[in-house]
Amino acid sequence: MALTVFANPEGGRFIEFVRIDIRAEDDGASPIASGSFEILYTTDGSVPSDTNSSTILRRSPIKRLPLSGPVTLKFFARTVTAPVYTTEVQTEFYDIIELTARNTINTVPISVSNYTLKVSNGDIVRTEPGFYELVYGQNKTIQDIKEIILVEDVPKGKFDGNRMLPGFGSELNRMLGSSFPVGFMVSSIKISIYRALTNLIAFQKASKAPSDEQIRRVVSISVVPQTQGDATKYSYNFIVETVSGETATGSGSIVGG
Hints:
Low-confidence stretches: 101-105, 152-178
Mean pLDDT: 76
CATH topology of the largest domain: Nuclear Transport Factor 2, Chain: A
CATH architecture of the largest domain: Roll
Shape: elongated
Number of strands: 17
Strand order of the largest sheet: 2-8-7-4-5
């Protein structure tokens, strides 16, 4: 054998979802497998092959493949150019458990009536199997602001890519009528963020959000290029004041589409 393939993480029990990488590489034994490798896989338990309609073919490595339900993953790899080396079919089972809100209620103080699941870098944060990490108060306000700035509204059935950072979108995409374009002016980004925050403030008032979460005014918004001359990546920072008189601050990255 001159080629090996593996999935990371390996199969097991996960909560709600898991993202996996599948990678093919030379196994160090002779003969050496060089050049590009491709991976064929299925998620319905069937054996992947060129004649199986359920088979998906991708170049190695496959990064952050999302799985959101119990899945039997079968996969193998082969070289793209001659001589052709092929691995044996590997099988991994991912037991993905769906949780309900009652699993999290005991992690919130009794006095708190308004809370949400914590999201970091686009993924829900879990403290242990069976429990989500929750946010409320100023932390919820900060998360709500980041969501309207960053979470891209990807149309159903469309591939969302392999972004290392959240896309610039959501409320902003709807306002602009398109995704964040390369070379978008800093002043326009700031104006769009301000408009999105204005909509959030109106929503908070209409939904009677608690005073320590509801934004009273936007103190400042700053947007700067992460690298001089690079019009595709920016850093943002915001400061808002809540109705209760507290200050909430947050920062992050914006990437072009």
